[in-house]
Write a structure and sequence with these properties.
Radius of gyration: 15 Å
Shape: globular
Order of helices and strands: HHHEEHH
Length: about 90
C-alpha cells in the first residue's frame, strides 16, 4: 500500500481481519458472473482446516485464494462501515 501511495495511486489496505471479512461475505448473497471462473473455483474449494480427527477448526485454509481476497478487498469499505470496525480490534470474531 505504501509503495502504491508513493506512486500516487489511490490505495487502501483490505480489512485487516481476514476471518471477519470472510464471515461477512458468507452472510450476504453475492451474485458472481459465470465468466468469473477462478473466483467460482476458489469459492467452491474454500473451507476451514480440519484436525487429524476430522474436526473442523476455526481457521480458514490459506493459499489459492487470491480472487477471494480481491472480493473481500472490493467490499472493504462496506464491511468496515457496516461493522463499525474502522481501526478497532475485533479479535475473538
Amino acid at each position: 500500500i505504501k509503495e502504491l501511495k508513493g506512486a500516487r495511486i489511490v490505495a487502501k489496505g483490505g480489512t485487516k481481519h481476514r476471518k471477519y471479512g470472510i464471515s461477512w461475505l458468507r452472510r450476504h448473497k453475492i451474485v458472481i458472473d459465470k465468466k468469473c471462473k477462478n473466483l467460482i473455483d476458489e469459492i467452491s474449494k474454500f473451507s476451514r482446516l480440519k484436525d487429524k480427527s476430522g474436526n473442523i477448526l476455526p481457521v480458514y485454509q490459506d493459499g489459492h485464494d487470491h480472487t477471494l481476497d480481491a472480493l473481500r478487498y472490493a467490499f472493504t469499505a462496506l464491511i468496515e462501515q457496516k461493522s463499525g470496525i474502522m481501526g478497532t480490534n475485533i479479535s475473538g470474531v
